[in-house]
Amino acid sequence: MDNRPIGLLDSGVGGLTVARELLRQLPNEEIVYIGDTRRAPYGPRSSEQILAFTWDMVNFLLSKNVKMIVMACNTATAVALENVKTKLDIPVIGVILPGASSAIQQTTGKKIGVIATQASVRSGEYPKAIHFKSPSIEVTSLACPKFVPIVESNEMDSTIAEKVVKESLKPLIGKVDTLILGCTHYPLLRTLIQKTMGENVKLIDSGAETVRDISVLLNYFMLNGTEREQINHQFYTTAGVESFQIIAEKWLNIGHINVMHAEIEEGKEL
Amino acid sequence: MDNRPIGLLDSGVGGLTVARELLRQLPNEEIVYIGDTRRAPYGPRSSEQILAFTWDMVNFLLSKNVKMIVMACNTATAVALENVKTKLDIPVIGVILPGASSAIQQTTGKKIGVIATQASVRSGEYPKAIHFKSPSIEVTSLACPKFVPIVESNEMDSTIAEKVVKESLKPLIGKVDTLILGCTHYPLLRTLIQKTMGENVKLIDSGAETVRDISVLLNYFMLNGTEREQINHQFYTTAGVESFQIIAEKWLNIGHINVMHAEIEEGKEL
Questions:
Q1: What is the pLDDT of residue A270?
Q2: Are B216 and A213 inside 8 Å of each other by CB?
């Protein structure tokens, strides 16, 4: 009924983990993806900056005539979701509530860990979402500021990555039964994280959980796309296209991806 | 954030299959259930009548200050969802799209069957929803007008029930790999239906699928209830309370249920 694209935004390449799930679960949907690689990582930035940068990307996506916006970035979701959602007349969805809801369903011992960027941890949005629904759950949050730079520089398979993951997660080992990957970059380190935490810890990919919610909202607002021959996804980055393209092709595994450079207008809210 | 109840409506007791899933999956939510048992079944009625009766129940639920309305009835959904949804400023959700979406995901041979009431089959809403997303799927619809009276009279375990189910489903046997129980009464006959269709046929309980969507919409519209000591579900029927109560207690399995008689005002739209 509505073949306009779905817009995804992220501070960089992390949101590609959401894009991958979206392409897999919703093959009739076209996406426009914008990664603000030039200004990544968002995690150490102030809330004011994150809000302003998120608006820059929202306005870029609106210029592409999107029917829905997915904040495929936990940091942007934590800081900007409510603000953006109330100002737009298209649906806007973030990755925190879907991840929190799924973790509540899956925890067996009521001990949930959340790893995320500094800004996300500071926002307290995950514990808030979990405790709102289930106050008796113990939530331990841990900022892992070194993870995003590893992913953005495509060093996921390096020995440095292994060392950083091991050291960063030490405070959580043995203390949680469920771990929310509270940053869309982190599923790119999933194997290392699982190995470090142990096979019994259930990892929650908040991005993948979000796609189920996107599907429900497409139904609810009657925005589903139709099956069609030609679907042209668009990928934009605010920095150079090359390293973005390498990660996108490796991660999405849908053949050649044409990544374009985006000049986004800064500082203009809706 | 919002402890108002969720309203569920059905032509009779069928929607209790949705209520059961809702109570299981969303323990923080209180429900108000109205079954129009006096005027059930809806299936053989005209669209005009079904629309008017549905509005009677919607108005009853609105008088109970509900935060969301679930049409836990395929017939009402097929005929009245769009009309009611556009006129209310609270979310209104039906059972057809969730069931159709789930069937599309689960079919292995692209042959989906739909069993429903006459009015639902006549509306063509299931094939429409499935073909919109996936035109290459073969959809076979079959009206089973004898099923609802069996359930409403609590004869699910009788030999008559077995005979009726076997004869009714004959046209579908061997022809579908997935079968949508396109009436919320039908899960009460699930064992018989599965036995008749064969173990390899995947049965889709549209009501249970709907509860996942309800959960997403509660998140999206920030309408979740909080964990609290006392939750008082309310069950109403437009006919006598006794047989409703027997089925409700058997099916919901949450101890004593206080069923009340509802006098609903007729013929007053919003």
A1: 63
A2: yes
